[in-house]
Design goal:
The chain is mainly alpha-helical. It is built from 4 helices and no strands. The chain has helices at about 5-30, 40-45, 45-70, 75-109. Helix 1 (about 5-30) runs antiparallel to helix 3 and helix 1 runs parallel beside helix 4 (about 75-109).
């Protein structure tokens, strides 16, 4: 995978991660919703914890992935690309679900 494509995918994952965080907090505050991820439940409502876990930690991890990916062999690079594509699809679905929840809140609420 070339560096530019990888960088673009990693930036998109980060943007979707931040969108997920913002949407989750907004939906939680609206009532009637809960954090489905048991690991995030105690952290999502705390601004500093949320910033660290959803903002800073992923940024550091994505920079590390980007830098370490340059050392991978072809087969490892293909596996990384598949994993990154899976994460991208997962966050895309998650953000789509958030959008649907906003629509439902708007119609019902």
């Amino acid at each position: 995978m070339n560096d530019r494509r990888l960088s673009r995918k990693l930036r998109l994952i980060y943007a979707l991660n931040i969108a997920d965080w913002i949407c989750t907090v907004t939906l939680l505050r609206s009532g009637g919703f809960y954090e489905a991820n048991p690991l995030m439940r105690p952290l999502i409502g705390e601004p500093l914890s949320g910033l660290i876990v959803k903002g800073l930690l992923p940024a550091v991890l994505l920079v590390l992935v980007s830098r370490l990916s340059r050392r991978l062999e072809t087969r490892e690079s293909l596996l990384l690309n598949r994993f990154i594509s899976f994460v991208l699809a997962l966050y895309s679905v998650l953000c789509t679900v958030h959008i649907m929840n906003f629509i439902v809140c708007r119609i019902v609420g």
